[in-house]
Amino acid sequence: MPPVFAAPSPDACPVHVIASDTFDSWLSSQPQRVQAWATAQGFTGACGQAVAVPAADGTFEMALAGYGNDAARTRRRFVLAEAAAKLPAGTYRIASGLPQEAAVTESLGWLLTGYRFDRYKENAAQAAALVAPDGLDAGAVESLAAAECLTRDLINTPASDMGPAELQAAAAALAEEFGAETSIILGEDLLAQNFPLIHTVGRASDRAPRLIDLRWGSAGPRLTLVGKGVCFDTGGLNLKPGNSMALMKKDMGGAANVLGLARMIMAAGLKLQLRVLIPAVENAVSGPAFRPGDVLTSRKGLTVEVNNTDAEGRLVLADALMLAAEEEPDLLISMATLTGAARVAVGPDLSPFYTDRDTDAAALSASAAHTADPVWRMPFYAPYETMIEPGIADLDNAPSGGFAGSITAALFLRRFAGDARYMHFDIYGWTPSAAPGRPKGGALQGARALFAALPGLLEL
């Protein structure tokens, strides 16, 4: 279950959030015993510090949470989460010191310290529970936490239990929760209904490829989300080495992220028409596997020369994007764990995104800054179009040379988005080292920033 706020209680321990530059004045206003305890514990108000101050009866009279200074906070996403993780189990309430403008982000970070992926291992660890701060829309923050936990759970689940059918079931469960509708195009029907690239990538697996189609809402602007759902990627016949294959259960991270974003949208009741398309496949190796050198024909009619079967994500996305474009949505967004080049460029935390519209980029960057969901704009650099144009087909799925890998992948996808207003996210979908509010494992990236920006982007 996703973490939620604790019920208000007179027994909740008050938490004083204290910045390092206000600590001395705060401490001087406290009784001598509180001063002595805080000093003995080495508390200075530095980011992430936490001290529980005991009362005479053995309970806690108060807790202190370090909030650091401006410079220190810029190096963290969830400042309060670091302190929350160090507090003893119990129920807490914010008594003072938390800036109102930071309440949503810091409360979300506190909730996310309670996330546990315990499907395969009993986890008895208890997190410090938080009463929702005064004036906070608790339901809205809990909804953000639930979306993040949904995405994390989907990515963290190993491919043995998260294949195309299980991803379909997860989408169906989400649809049922919010009164949405889903439909599926499965296996050989993909060929009959002209989704040849999705079928080709998934045909070598005994877990049938499929296109998942979720719809919600009947009025307002049309938003379509497309998420890469490669439930495991061996690399195909261009087989990945073992160390590169180890995390390939997360290659459906784009699908997990669009489902997380869809959950936020539906829970908030945004006045729009939402469509979510997920090409769900397993890129396996067997006799029917597609081969390097093959030339494939896409739904759009463009031919693609396969120079690397490990560049399969853009293939399945191409057919789904073409379907999305045929409906002429007001905004079309794709999310995918697409290229290692993006990780080399910006590392695991930032979400590179592409758009032709400067106003959309500015709106997204602004929302990212206040949602602790960092993004970075990358260019649809037109002179690189020639790099994805091979000699014997319209497009090349894996240009040689290795330069600009994320950009050329984005340019490839843009060929299938038609005239739609299009944004593409080349995410990592994984936190490689634990951080406050973000345990090692599956990660939601870019979705909260998008959710915050959508009212402005779509004039809701």
Summarize the structure in words.
This protein is of the alpha/beta class. It has 16 helices and 19 strands. The strands form four sheets. Strands 6, 7, 8, 9, 10, 13, 14, 15 and 17 form a nine-stranded mixed β-sheet that branches. It has a five-stranded mixed β-sheet with strand order 2-3-1-4-5, with helices on both faces. Strands 11-12-16 form a three-stranded mixed β-sheet, covered by helices on one side. Helix 6 packs antiparallel against helix 11. The longest helix has 19 residues, at 138-156.
Uncertain runs are none
**Sheet bearing the most strands, described?**
9 strands, mixed
Distance between the ends:
31 Å
Class by helix and strand content? alpha/beta
Element layout with pairings:
Elements: E1 13-19, H1 23-28, H2 32-40, E2 50-54, E3 60-68, H3 70-73, H4 79-84, E4 91-96, H5 103-112, E5 129-130, H6 138-156, H7 164-178, E6 181-186, H8 189-192, H9 196-202, E7 210-216, E8 222-227, E9 229-233, H10 242-245, H11 253-268, E10 273-283, E11 295-297, E12 303-305, H12 313-326, E13 331-336, H13 340-346, E14 351-355, H14 358-371, E15 375-378, E16 395-396, H15 405-414, E17 422-426, E18 430-431, E19 441-442, H16 447-457
Parallel strand pairs: 1-3, 1-4, 4-5, 8-10, 8-13, 9-10, 12-16, 13-17, 14-15
Antiparallel strand pairs: 2-3, 6-7, 7-10, 11-12, 14-17, 18-19
Protein name: Cytochrome C oxidase subunit II
GO biological process, one term: proteolysis
Organism: Leisingera methylohalidivorans DSM 14336
